[in-house]
Each structure stands twice: as C-alpha cells, then as structure tokens.
Amino acid sequence: xxxxxxxxxxxxxxxxxxxxxxxxxxxxxxxxxxxxxxxxxxxxxxxxxxxxxxxxxxxxxxxxxxxxxxxxxxxxxxxxxxxxxxxxxxxxxxxxxxxxxxxxxxxxxxxxxxxxxxxxxxxxxxxxxxxxxxxxxxxxxxxxxxxxxxxxxxxxxxxxxxxxxxxxxxxxxxxxxxxxxxxxxxxxxxxxxxxxxxxxxxxxxxxxxxxxxxxxxxxxxxxxxxxxxxxxxxxxxxxxxxxxxxxxxxxxxxxxxxxxxxxxxxxxxxxxxxxxxxxxxxxxxxxxxxxxxxxxxxxxxxxxx
Length: 305
Ligand SMILES: [Zn+2]
What we know:
The chain is built from twelve helices and five strands. The protein has a single domain, classed as Orthogonal Bundle (P1 Nuclease). It is mainly alpha-helical and about 300 residues long. Bound molecules: zinc ion.
C-alpha cells in the first residue's frame, strides 16, 4: 500500500512537473479547472474536506486544485487512453439538445463513455470510500481527481458541442490578434483575457471575484437552485443540457470559421464562462459533500444511477 501510494505520488509529481504547461484541447484550461476546484474545496463540509485531504498525495499539500488538471495530462498515455472520450459529449449537429442514451457513447458506440457517464461512474466509485479498506485509496484518489475534473468539463458549454466540428475544435478563427479555435476560446481565451483586462493577470483575484458573485453578489439567490439535486443522473443530464443550450445560444451563434472574435464576443460571453466555473465548483462541492461528508444522504442521490 505504502509503495503504491508512493509510486502514484511520484507518478503524479512527474506528470505535474513535466506537463503542467502543456495543456491539451480537452477541457477548461488549467486555470478554469483550478478555479472550479478551489471554489469546490472551500465549500466542503469538514468530513468531506478531511477525506479529500486523505486522498490527495502529500505533495499536493491538501490543495485539490493542484491536481484537477491531471486527467487532461494523462489522457493520451497508453495506460489512460480509455479516458480520453470521457472529457466531452458529441451531440448531433444543430440538435441543440442532449439525450443520454443517444449521445453518451464513444466513437465505437461504447455506452456511458462520455463526460456525463464518467461523472456518474466516478461518483459511484467514490461513494464506496467509507466501505473500503485502506488499500482502496489508490483508486479512490483517481476517482476524486477524475470526478473533480469532469465536473469542470461538463460545465464548459463547448464540451457538449456538435459532432462534426468536435465541439468547435475544427472551427479555426482569430481571438483578437492570434490564431485560435472556437473550442479553445471557451476553454481558455476568455478566461485569460478576463484575467489580463480586469485582474492584472492574477488568477486568484479573478477567482475571488467569481466567488463574491455567488456569496453576496449577482448569483447569491441562485446558488441553492444550482445545488438542487435529488437524483444524480437527472442532475448530470441537466448540467449537460445547460451546456449544449449555451453552446448553441452563445458559443456557435453568429460565429464563422476564419473570422476574428474580439470585444463584442468577449464582453457578451465572459459572464457566462464565469458563471459556469462557479456552477461547476458549487456542484462539485455538493456531490463531494454528499458522497464523502458522512451524512445519510450519500446513497439517495445515487439511487437512480
Ligand atoms: Zn478535460
């Protein structure tokens, strides 16, 4: 057990040091995932916070956000190649809807192989923590990191996008003066432009501003609704549906390949990106609190999965 944990720690450390700056296209950027996870971790009840602390490798220093981007970094490694379809959902072009049985599969038709299926699976794995023995921690750590990451991804609207353009990945365009694509605009460009324009590139200030919006600002009356969840499957489907609706209404709308997106697009979409990061964080904490918080509510959200 000690060896496995040490090995896993070294393994994660290696990935972290070598690939922290090598971000793929699948997911909120490093910054988006870190904010989602920081927001979530600050909302954990003591029991859940304790378990998360136990599951993180020592070098993370108790900071979940330090490892929230890990699933993006390992997805193309041979050992983890199975996980690469789990970061997104491809929906039929222009359908602007999500249907779990129609859409949650990989390109070979493998059932449940999408971000919605992954969240259900890793939540269910994590719910066994309290019944497990200590040598289960190896898997539990992975389950925690995958769940935390995928709760970010499912809230990125372009992660529930159209099949033929791969969620906007094949729509090449310019973001202000540099080359980008529509998917990446939502993963990272909007976040970085917001940080540069309003927070002197300080991600912590941006994160605090997002948190202030739901603790006592713009969204403070909505947080309870965000967290509402009686049946995890239905909730996850709702998050995916919200994303594809936003992708249609705000992501794709009016965008043509080859064009330049700038102030108009940024100003109108930035609040949506910030809200999705907040919702991802608040809802991740809701799931972790229910599953790891030791309350009797653990099983009930999983009933229908
Ligand atoms: Zn991802």
